[in-house]
Amino acid sequence: MAEITTLALNGLAWGLIVALIALGLSVIFGLLDVINVAHGDFFMVGTVLAWVAVDATGSFAVALVLVPILGLLLGALTERIAIRPVLSTIVLTVVSTHGLGILMQEGVRATFGATPRRLVAPVGGTITLPGDVQYDVYRLVAAGAAALALLAFFAFQQRTRFGTWMRAVRHDRETATTLGIPVARVQLLTFSIGAGLALLGGVIAAPITTVDFRAGIEILPTCFMAVVVGGLGNLPGTAAAAVLLAVTEGVVSAFLDPSAARIVSLCLMCAVLFLRPHGLFAGARA
Amino acid sequence: MTNRRSFLQTALAGGAASVFITRDLYAQASGPIVIGHQIELTGGFSSWGYWHDKAAKAAAKLINDGGGIAGRRLDLVTEDSESNPATGARKLRSLVQRNRAAFIQGSVHSGVMLASIPIATELKTVYFSTGEATEATGSRGSRWAFRTGSDTYSLAGAAAPWAFANLGKTWTMIFPDYAWGHSHHQEHKAVIERLGGKVHDPIAVPLDARDLLPYLTRIPQDTEVLFSVFFGAQSVAFYTQAKSMGLERTMKMYSVSGTIEAIAPEDMDGAAEGVTVVENFPRSLAAKDDEFHREHLRLMEVDGVHAREANSRRVYAKSHAWQAWENMFLLKAAVEASGWRTKRDDPALVAALEGMEMPNSLAHPQGAKTLRKQDHSGMVDTYISRVTGNELKPVQKVAKETLATALPPRFDFSTQAL
Description:
The structure holds 2 protein chains of 2 kinds.
Chain A lengths: L1 H31 L6 H19 L2 H24 L6 H22 L14 E4 L3 E4 H23 L1 H11 L1 H6 L4 H23 L9 H16 L4 H19 L4 H18 L6 H4 L1
Antiparallel strand pairs in A: 1-2
Chain B lengths: L3 H23 L6 E7 L6 H20 L8 E7 L4 H14 L4 E3 L4 H13 L3 E3 L16 E2 L5 H15 L3 E7 L2 H16 L3 E2 L3 E3 L7 H4 L8 E4 L3 H13 L7 E5 L19 E4 L11 H10 L17 H21 L7 H8 L3 E2 L10 E3 L6 E2 L2 E7 L2 E8 L1 H7 L12
Parallel strand pairs in B: 1-2, 1-3, 3-4, 4-5, 6-7, 6-8, 6-9, 9-10, 10-11
Antiparallel strand pairs in B: 11-15, 12-13, 13-14, 15-16
Helix pairs in contact in B: 2-10, 3-4, 5-6, 10-11
InterPro entries (chain A): ABC_transp_permease, BCAA_transport_permease
Protein name (chain A): Branched-chain amino acid ABC transporter permease
Subcellular location (chain A): Cell membrane
């Protein structure tokens, strides 16, 4: 029972962080129909910039504020250079973002180096869970920060004029254009927000994982699973699916080998694709 | 039916082919000697690959500055395996068939290395493994495959008895779910159980896992020694997350050099403090303080404490990349001893390599060693170090003679036909 508690709690904490990163992927797909296979690399850049910011200033708070802003700028630049010219053909966006991902990885390897680094958590210490398991306090802080960021994004999307525009463009791009909504600007900012969420996820996750030029490769499949299970473009569904998958994997890990737990997650995704091809939360979107 | 025209066509084709064949056999008898270097310049092992590249190039320069190999220039041709076995195998063929490499200094990535040995054997080309999976000079080895450095068999044989006596009797092993990790587990388990210790069920972690907590919670609480085998980013993740769970307070952390290769303990901000590590070329100059070691470090542009590069933050992947340096000199010695001129002389070169002695020198700064005849394995000094005050400090040295006695050869490749 103690092990289940620990693994479920960890699944929840990790799931919230993944949800934040996956949300960026879902935002970009849902609003722009762009399959951003470089999304994991945006996350990786977030971890690297966080390390650089902390190394330069000694302050994690600076990284937490500065890096997402840099993410917005990087996203805007990417949208103009790599996305907008190929936006009309979805397949080309895959090719374009794949190339972008390679550029980002090799760019980081060439400048930051291939050696993995550790970013020390700004909050130290452990709490004792049932079964005398020591659990890292920072994981709980990170989960809380991710949850806050998710809530802030949904509030922005629901309560602001720009959020309304984003939803309008997703719903019907042509009608939005006729209503005077600046669709090109919305697309630009949407991609920026998606990238910014990935970089923010990188800052939050960096003290838990590692800072290294390949960090994005591992996180991308998990994010895609959340997007698929949650329903393509369904933003609350993506966040919920990320948490659900991580908690499921955590609980199953208490009974099976963690690798087998990953297989269970993949089977769950297959079942969702068979039974609800538009995602587990497709109804919620409608 | 053969007529005059077809006869002439066949004769011309045969003549042309014989010109090419003759060129292949003899054209290189006096030109440069090409050594192919299959390394990981990109991908997961690229932080190590940089050093293998630098070491091989520095050694090649030293050899050429000293007159080359038997008076012939050494041409080093490098191919990037991308840390991918399929790509590595393809690049190996390219090195031999396109670049006409006579010998191959091979990969440190066990997957690439094990995928390459059958190809090197098929192409009848001497291949130096640099990775640690014991199969390379064991069940999947051949007479064409050699390894100057340590493997999982020798690392377990050299250091596990010391760890058993000094760290604890009840072990748990956690490692990445691929050839290198499983090989370490099998060899260490055999030694610990032979000594009367208890080894819990292994914990194999998928290569892409970064959240290791689900795996760390499976470590039994009566574990006295946690033997971890990771590399690169997963290694940093392991130390960080194990530290955050306070595992080092209840068990001794023990590992092999690969886990901390190319990473300075000070860059992990104390996460690796107290870890005992098995090295075969100690990071600390103090552990083997002689003129050859010092000169090697000077030429590699690294310091004698952290092995950090003078003009960057990179840390020398010292316990593996020394082989890329030493194997250049070993090949030079073997070519000159056997009178090798072309690939037709390979049998004599292989025979010269089998049992070759290497003296402690600038050519072999890791120390004196023997390339054992039967299993083509290097018998080298092994060092046990511990991370103390963010530095790897020597604790114990296991001499190569002890290793050779404790680890009898399990395979004999010297009887295979070439």
